[in-house]
Amino acid sequence: MKFYFAPLEGITRYIFRNAYEKYYGGIDKYFAPFISPTDNCFLTPKNVRELCPEHNQGIKLVPQILTNNSVAFIGAAKELYDMGYKELNLNLGCPSGTVCAKKKGAGFLTEWYEMEQLFDSIYEWADSNNVKISIKTRLGRFAPEEFYDILEIYNRYPISELIVHPRIEKDYYKGKPRMEFYEYAVEHSKAPVIYNGNLFTCEDIIKRSETSDTVMLGRGLLYNPELIKQFVIYEDECNEIKTYDLIDVTDKLCQDKAYDFKNFWSFHDEIYHGYQEIMAPDKNVLFHMKELWTYWKELYTDCDREIRNILKTKNYGEYEAAIRQLK
Ligand SMILES: Cc1cc2nc3c(=O)[nH]c(=O)nc-3n(C[C@H](O)[C@H](O)[C@H](O)COP(=O)(O)O)c2cc1C
Question: CB burial class (10 A; 0-12, 13-18, 19+) of residue 26?
Fold first, then answer.
């Protein structure tokens, strides 16, 4: 089983990626949050800081580009190529209102003629430069049935991997993924299909592993940074104890294996101190830490008061006092 770390804008930045790799690992590819090149500015200084090889050593990173414009895509792709990137990802899934209104991300999925024009240009450039371009897509904008036509377009291009998040723009991140359309993609896509969406537990991954050998995980790795490690243990155990059913195995392991909170706190501290080095104190750093705590709170049961205190902090002193209550 292979694991890709999904791009999570504002969260999976280089400080986070490096800390995750150091304390957990097991990721085959990290996808960087999207960059938005324009006709006259391909990569901003912030994009360069996030993507430069010095800040991403020892990890396989795929930059992601959000655009509907071939000049902007190829301009950014050339600069990324010079930084050493031979694999890029096109974002056709972002559901944000402002992005979709500009016909980018999932908002581009209704523009089939323009889509083909973009693909003609970028795949021609990719071919002559030996660069792979994968696509991360939703099923459509307004209705999942749009996917039948969209997939026909995708099938005309040498897409290196098609990462399918089986929702439409309007679903945002809510509701159940529309699995029947994912199955359709697996059956009809010429490109290898990677599943993404709502894999939060080992059981979810085990179920998916029956038909997918690679999955992309996003929020699942925030809620539970140990998810992959636990999955590997569960998988071994499942192979060993064939007589148990899956739930027995997971229950047994949940009781046996205590969560490694020492490792979690080392991971936390690395991110906290890393952010302090690159961001303005204290508000900015705390904003990002609190965003992580909206996921990490799931690691602690019966600690609502302590979590609320963390989310209320206004400076480093308060934050450090609040996390000591949990440590
Ligand atoms: C806070 C946040 C930021 C995201 N940023 C990006 C992004 O930059 N590019 C992208 O393709 N998807 C982005 N996504 C979507 C995720 O990559 C992923 O497709 C989605 O969360 C579903 O997968 P999951 O259920 O495993 O989290 C973002 C999602 C969230 C919640």
Answer: middle
Instruction: Tell me which CATH code domain 2-221 carries.
Output: 3.20.20.70
> What is the tens place of the pLDDT at every residue in 177-235?
999 999 999 999 999 999 999 999 988 998 898 889 999 999 999 999 999 988 888 77
Q: In what helix (H) or strand (E) does residue 157 lie, and over which residues does it extend?
A: none
Q: Output helix, strand, coil percentages for the chain, rounded to the nearest 5.
A: 55, 15, 35
Residues with CB under 6 A from ligand 1: 6-9, 11, 33-34, 64, 91, 93-94, 136, 165, 173, 196-199, 217-220
Ligand 1 atom nearest residue 105's Cα = 11
User: Which amino acid is present at 252?
Assistant: K
Judge contact between 23 and 267, C-beta under 8 A. yes
Q: What is the DSSP string of 94-106?
A: ---HHHHHTT-GG
DSSP letters spanning 211-242: T-SEEEESHHHHH-TTHHHHHHHHHHHHHH-T
Q: Residue 111 is encoded by which pair of tokens?
A: 């523009």
CB hemisphere CA count around 109 (13 angstroms): 32
Residue 170 DSSP label: G
CA of 244 to the centre of ligand 1 (A): 35
pLDDT score of 251 more than 70: no
Q: What type of residue sits at position 135?
A: I
Residue pLDDT, tens place only, 270-318: 999 999 999 999 999 999 999 999 999 999 988 999 999 999 999 999 9
The structural domains of the chain, with segments of one domain joined by +, span 2-221, 261-324
Q: What are phi and psi of 90, to 5 degrees?
A: -105, 130
| Residue 90 in tokens | 């096109």
